[in-house]
Design a protein that fits this description.
7-stranded mixed sheet; about 280 residues; alpha+beta
Length: about 280
């Protein structure tokens, strides 16, 4: 769940809807500087569906310590792991290459959680990191199976599921597509949260196996998000996303929160990207 504040309301945006926005942007990638994604449909599918395991979790969100709906960065590990697992399974079941990209993305999120650890660890921390590490090892096995089904090499040394650049054309392409997924995921989050979560994104590859480029991001007073250098084939991209508006008031119980969300009307938010 993504929370966006509007005066005395919260606007709730589902994780899967945020991913669908990233998928719409993926269809626009490609110009004189940046190559379009290849294989096109598999990469667009991966980017659009990378959070397809979240709808069940977003339908009944938990509360944070302030008794507001918990947003994505406040998600409990068990909830995130369940959603990541479902996302990988659903996408891999329809497209192995797209599934490989989603698995790499989910594994990177879990690895980030593990690397962000601070000592000393409590018993709860140890249990949490054990679950993340178990998930990572499971994804490594899934990725090897998907690579085999795609005819990709499985004898190369990997770090976080990816080979060093220059080891294999297939792996260079996979790295470029993974970086594109990461970039568009974060850019969509910036649009949905209505705040500048990151001032620099990437790097993403100009061409698979070629040079990479970080991208600068800023937000104009009217809310338009600007990206430089510009990786898209249009000068401006207008996007729409559904959201539910609820009062920005604490809820005493999960049941109360879920009832309020269930009764809330859905509205359409308009967002804009420009050079």
């Amino acid at each position: 769940m993504i929370l966006r504040r509007r005066r005395d309301q919260f606007l709730l945006i589902a994780q899967h809807d945020h991913a669908l926005i990233a998928g719409q942007m993926a269809k626009c990638v490609g110009n004189a500087l940046f190559a379009p994604p290849v294989p096109y449909q598999a990469v667009v599918t991966a980017i659009a569906q990378h959070d397809c395991g979240w709808p069940d979790q977003d339908a009944l969100p938990a509360r944070n310590p302030q008794n507001f709906p918990a947003h994505v960065f406040e998600t409990e590990p068990d909830v995130a792991l369940k959603a990541w697992t479902a996302s990988v399974e659903k996408v891999a079941g329809t497209d192995p290459y797209a599934g490989l990209l989603v698995s790499l993305h989910a594994m990177a999120l879990a690895a980030h959680a593990v690397h962000a650890r601070t000592d000393p660890l409590s018993d709860k921390d140890r249990q949490r990191f054990f679950k993340f590490n178990r998930f990572i090892h499971c994804q490594i096995e899934i990725q090897e199976q998907l690579r085999s089904s795609l005819g990709m090499r499985t004898d190369l040394p990997l770090r976080n599921g990816l080979a060093e650049p220059g080891r294999s054309p297939d792996e260079d392409l996979l790295l470029a597509n993974f970086r594109l997924l990461q970039f568009l995921d974060q850019l969509s989050l910036i649009l949905c949260f209505d705040e500048l979560l990151f001032e620099q994104l990437g790097p993403i590859n100009l061409r698979p196996g070629g040079a990479s480029q970080s991208l600068r991001v800023d937000r104009r007073p009217d809310g338009t998000v600007r990206v430089d250098p510009w990786p898209f084939d249009a000068h401006r991209i207008d996007l729409q996303i559904p959201a539910k508006a609820i009062p920005a008031s604490p809820c005493a119980t999960d049941a109360q929160l879920h009832a309020i969300i269930g009764a809330a009307a859905t509205e359409t938010l308009v967002m804009c990207l420009s050079r």
